[in-house]
Amino acid sequence: MSQRCSSSEQIWTPSVRGDVYQIHLAGKKNVQQGHRFAIVVQSSRLNLSTTVIVPTSTAARPGLHRPEIDWDGTTTYALAEQVTAVPTDNLGRMVGHLLRSDMDRIDEALRMVLALGPAHT
Amino acid sequence: MPATATAAKKATTRKRTYRPRAAAADPATTTAATTKSTAAAKSGRSRAKTAPAKTGPTEPPPSQARKAPPGATSATQINFRADEETRQALDILTQDGTPVSEAIRSAIRLAVWRMKEDQMVRDAEAAMADPADVAEMLQLRADLDSISAR
Hints:
A: 121 residues; 8 strands; B: mainly alpha; 64% helix
């Protein structure tokens, strides 16, 4: 996962596939169970009022459908089985962008969860 | 169908399925391929000796594979012994014109995919039996609901 500089954050308003947002949890302290992030998996060309994301968790049990992602030295899991659409305006603060290798593993997990088959057959 | 026509069709199928390209390089290649290689060499039509560059875009010769730069798509040549059942299965997989190599590649990828699916099922069962994971999923659901309701 790579951090994006704060200046570019102001320019890139539409979310891009692979962007990582820190989910703001109202009334809760994120430090308690680690931060929760949302990884955008929706096509970057699809500009809607909602965005399809894969949430992350540091407390989830590892699995093949939950690819491991390193965020600033902390291991977190992308929960492909929890893929969902959320209002774009409520995504929170964008904190970075996933590496291509991380997105490849998330794509593979999504293909398995959604029974889309292997990428090349 | 006349007997001669049937024999000709079988010969065509076998020719497509077992090119003599690999026969000269590896003694482990099937007997059928070696026999065909000899026959082709006698008739002056041996692809393995005269035209390795004509093997098609999906099957680069080993020399090309070795020269591929790091990160580029490369191919590794693997020979295996096909028994009768496998030959029949290959005939089915290639009857629509799919090259043998591509059919085998797809079959291997599909086998790996099935293995991963089985592993995913086991992982999901383990997660379901883990109270901590179930609690985390409930918490996650609440967090996501709070985002949607905002």
